[in-house]
Design a protein that fits this description.
The structure holds 2 protein chains of 2 kinds.
Chain A (H helix, E strand, L loop, with lengths): L2 H17 L11 H7 L2 E6 L2 E6 L28 H35 L1
Antiparallel strand pairs in A: 1-2
Chain B lengths: L16 H21 L9 H15 L3 E4 L2 E3 L4 H8 L1 H18 L8 H23 L8 H30 L6 H33 L5 H12 L1
Antiparallel strand pairs in B: 1-2
Helix pairs in contact in B: 1-4, 1-5, 2-3, 2-4, 3-4, 3-5, 3-6, 3-7, 4-5, 5-6, 6-7
Classes of the chains: A mainly alpha, B mainly alpha.
Amino acid sequence: MSNRTFLVVFAAATLLIAGVVSYGASSSPDGLDSATLRGCEVVETDAGEELLGDCIARHATEHRLAGSPLADYAVAGRDGTGGLAGVVGVLVTVGVAGAVFLVIARGRRDRSAASAG
Amino acid sequence: MDVNPVAMHMSDGIVNAPASLLFGVIAIGAVAVAAVRARSELDERTVPLAGLVAAFVFAAQMVNFPILPGVSGHLLGGALAAILVGPYTGVLCLTIVLVVQALLFADGGVTALGTNITNMAVLGVAAGYAVAVALRPMPAARRPAGLAVLAFLAGFAGTLAAATGFVIEYAMGGAGSGSLGAVAGYLYGTHALIGVGEGVITAATVAAVARARPDLVYLLRGARLREVAA
């Protein structure tokens, strides 16, 4: 498989996972979250969901960026936008990571020149 | 229903400020070392795959799989990244994913970034890669099935190492009145199951890449170089 074909297939699989497969994700809390919720009961109130009882999660503070446009993997808090948020996350991640890794790879090539100058 | 169905990482407030600060310093130190040492793993040929591996980990972390009634798990990706692009680049991949999640998706606290990076980007990568390197000399590791088993065990070990990080942090500065033993017991029980899922995803992904482009798999690259040198 050529380098370009391989990278295109890898990128397409990544976008498919974030944009489509993510809709099939379990909405149950993960192992860490459920550990922090043990001992508490989640009840619906007028103000939303509330924790009753004694558990680690009661000490968790609200995320300081909870109001940001992509908070909780949704676009502007709208239902059903998780796939779009995931695709944005993939593009941002590959952009940031690609830039960081390119700088590191070029630093290696330019290292001798930089140390001489 | 749970309070925050899409949170995947530690929130702020779970671990107190002194412990958060300590693990923040540990994380910054480890990431700085990784940034320097990653030079030996990255060249312009491997940069595109390294960038895509970070994005793949981000995407795969979104897909929670059920492990018990009402409890799920998701890929952490440390062993996966280390096997494909190298341990130091792997630390940077996971760190970038965690920073993007915390700052853009409000997932994982900002103060908790140090603990989350220590657990998943440092401990998860280190343990996963250590297991992969330990198993690499076995003749079976050069066959596709053997490589898949190696990747499975590396993923499993990386998950338990990340859970161990949380247990240590909780022991040092955890909030809440639950006993450490109970928290640790529950955490290891769930993460043994999550580790099986992590192992399966790691094995499938590494096997697919190794079938398409074995020359791009960092772990195999190192093995070949050693054989040539020997």
